[in-house]
Amino acid sequence: MTFYKSLLCLFLLPACLFAEAEVFKDISYKATAVTDYEKERCKLDVYTVTSKAKSPVLLWFHGGSIQQGSKSDEKHVKKVAKHFVKHGVGFVAVNYRLSPKVKYPSYIEDCASSIKWLIENAEKYKFDPGKIFVGGHSAGGYLTLMSSFENPSVKKVGLDLSKIAGLVPVAGQTVTHSTVRGESHIPKSIIIADEKSPLYSSAMMKLPTFLIAGSNDLPMRAEENQLLYAAIKKNNSNNRLGIYNDRDHGTIVSKLTVKDDPAFKYILEFISNNQIQ
Prior knowledge:
Blueprint: H1 3-12, E1 21-28, H2 36-41, E2 43-49, E3 55-61, H3 74-86, E4 90-94, H4 106-121, E5 127-137, H5 139-146, H6 152-157, E6 166-170, H7 178-183, E7 210-214, H8 221-232, E8 240-244, H9 251-254, H10 262-273
Parallel strand pairs: 3-4, 3-5, 5-6, 7-8
Antiparallel strand pairs: 1-2, 2-4
Helix pairs in contact: 1-10
């Protein structure tokens, strides 16, 4: 992918570059939320592009080891959201329930429910229903991947995966997540890839996917993403892998908002090049 091709993709997006976002906050995405904790955490913020044209949209799961974090994180969510909107891409920031208050697969069911909500409400917020993308950072990357193929959690909430145009997991764990292992009393030092990991179900991952990690990311994180890419690259001709030099686990996402950032440009290119037919 060349620099000039990336620039071209910027102009292929809706003609609303550098638009300001209109934000709709704390929308409940679970109509049948039962517990007080569901009512508290199962909410999202919608950042819309102020343009007459329908825009692509990126739904985003925050990081935090599935134990902490928020859609209101200034550096890793809100600033990123506004940067995407300025470049013509709507943004939906999602909260989900956290461990140890809930355990696997409750948070995956939440994430799948939020994607379903966006699919059902995309046109209400002037998003293009053919260009709905899902991504997230760290734990959010893991949750992105675990919400994107046929599994009991996806089936339980009735998510139609064919309505998702592509995935952008950033620095996501592709083996069984350390918190998920901890819930089963498996030490973090023991690495597994069972049915609770993206790697285990790589053959089922058919959606266009752009895996991103930093060369100085957490131990094994870049290699995990390289391994998953090797497993899924044959599944879809639009699958991509980006390992960015001198990025650690935090800067791989925070630098997306830096002018002329190559990772951000290639995400825009990925969004431009993929659409539900």
